Amino acid sequence: MKTILTAKQLSITVDRLCHQLIENHLNFENTVLLGLQPRGVWLGNHIYTKLKTLLPGTNIQYGKIDITFYRDDFNKKGKSILVPNETAINFTIENKRVVLIDDVLYTGRSTRAALDAMMDFGRPSSVELLALIDRRFSRELPIQADYVGRTVDAIITENVRVLWTERDGRDEVVLE
Amino acid sequence: MSLSVKHLLGIRDLTRQDIELIFQTADQFKEVLQRPIKKVPTLRDTTIVNVFYENSTRTRISFELAEKRLGADVINFSASGSSVSKGETLIDTVHNILSMKVDMVVMRHSASGAPHFLSRHIDVPIVNAGDGINEHPTQALLDAFSIREKLGSVEGKKIAICGDIMHSRVALSNIYALKKLGAEVTVVGPPTLIPKHLADALGVNVTYSIREALEWADVANVLRIQLERQNMPLFSSLREYSLAYGVTRQLLNSLKKEVIIMHPGPINRGVELDSNVADGNESIILQQVENGVAIRMAALYLLSGRKIN
């Protein structure tokens, strides 16, 4: 097991991603954040909390989107059925600038499913993707992130895991 | 996580974990049904046939909606107006439908055990939409789901099942589901409509007094008198049944507490349930119908991933 980001580095990276978001979206007047269930939501929670401390008094809209029903590997050989997670979008995304948030961008298939899921809620004016870890060279679809925490070269048998204190007892990103 | 069964033939075969998995999945489908676009593409490569050998309004529409909202292709088959009247057997009928590349079967039949029999001869998942006087699993699931939604949980709650217990597949499926989820169940009705030894066999309480049952219960699930399944007189008249066992506004007002009223439909207004009770504040009858679609989406979704042999 190899550490990609320590707790300190992870915190700095999340801070940087927040500043990059502010640079592009200023006061988030017409922007909404969507965390991808299940793992992207943990990162989304951190980013949402940090943005609120950086922009006190600003109303930032943040929701969670589940992609289980939109996956392209449903009912395929060797795949067991997936239990869906909560979708919570209590605002409209029609004509909004959407930022999708996921922890690891790998094949791009989750992002594809998230795009489809999101479109069922309305037609955003634009969509951006934020990924904490970008496993480049592993893409199976033409999808790239607009905001990247750290780029990692990992082979297919390796697994990138993002650990959060509130769920795993410590903040760290590891390659195993 | 996945279901422990390949077919949904009855609640009897399910574990508590299965039921909770179906509820957890139905919670998410319920959210899908609140969206502007109430449809997901999950089963877009699946074709489902609804085989109905017996009449139905709610169950059939509910299954069809559930299938369409999962993105599946749907075929409807009714025994009336088909080659069944020319003497085609159940297995032949279903084999012919399946040879046209159908992936799942939803079946209602007036013979108890018909879907169980069919499950030994075909290799696609079957969902029982009611078989004779045996089981109606999706109805029991949506009933328990509605209780959970209204009261927070099913565990420890007191449920009275009222009326024609003998001929009701809803009663049997409900008893299995509620007991598995840790509820207490009392059945109430005329002695002629409650099977002997039911208390010992299924661990339910039996009473013949509707007032006693309602005094005790948090929820009353009131059933229809199944005249179509009764081939001998089991009570003297519908009027007498209604006087002795009908749930009226007067009866509910005389209780010390509120009882939630459920009914699987179709209601015989003025027989088992008065109109002002069926449409009253304590009634969750239409919520039951609404939840039916989410429950059936969950059952179809979880079964569609099961490979059979």
From TrEMBL, chain A:
Which molecular function term from Gene Ontology is one that the record holds?
glycosyltransferase activity
Domain Phosphoribosyltransferase, by residue range, is: 3-156
CDD domains with a match to the protein in the record = PRTases_typeI (cd06223)
Superkingdom assignment: Bacteria
Keyword Glycosyltransferase present in the record's keywords: the answer is: yes
Name the NCBIfam families on file. PRK05205.1-5 (NF003549)
Query: Do you know which SUPFAM superfamilies this protein is assigned to?
Result: PRTase-like
On whether Glycosyltransferase is a keyword of this UniProt record, the answer is: yes
Q: Which organism is it from?
A: Chitinophaga costaii
Keywords attached to this Swiss-Prot or TrEMBL record, sorted alphabetically, are:
Glycosyltransferase, Transferase
- Please give the InterPro entries that the UniProt record associates with this protein: PRTase-like (IPR029057), PRTase_dom (IPR000836), PyrR_bifunctional (IPR050137)
User: What is the protein name for this chain?
Assistant: Pyrimidine operon attenuation protein / uracil phosphoribosyltransferase
Automatic annotation (TrEMBL), chain B:
Give the keywords, sorted: Pyrimidine biosynthesis, Transferase
**What's one GO-annotated cellular component?**
cytosol
Q: What is its EC number?
A: 2.1.3.2
Q: Which Pfam families did the record assign?
A: OTCace, OTCace_N
Q: Where does carbamoyl phosphate bind?
A: R58, T59, R108, H136, Q139, G265, P266
- GO biological process terms on file: 'de novo' pyrimidine nucleobase biosynthetic process; 'de novo' UMP biosynthetic process; amino acid metabolic process
Aspartate/ornithine carbamoyltransferase Asp/Orn-binding domain sequence ranges: 155-303
Name the domain of life this protein comes from.
Bacteria
Query: What assembly does the database describe for this protein?
Result: Heterododecamer (2C3:3R2) of six catalytic PyrB chains organized as two trimers (C3), and six regulatory PyrI chains organized as three dimers (R2).
Q: What does the UniProt record say this protein does?
A: Catalyzes the condensation of carbamoyl phosphate and aspartate to form carbamoyl aspartate and inorganic phosphate, the committed step in the de novo pyrimidine nucleotide biosynthesis pathway.
Give the protein's recorded name: Aspartate carbamoyltransferase
State the organism named in the record: Chitinophaga costaii
- Give the encoding gene's name: pyrB
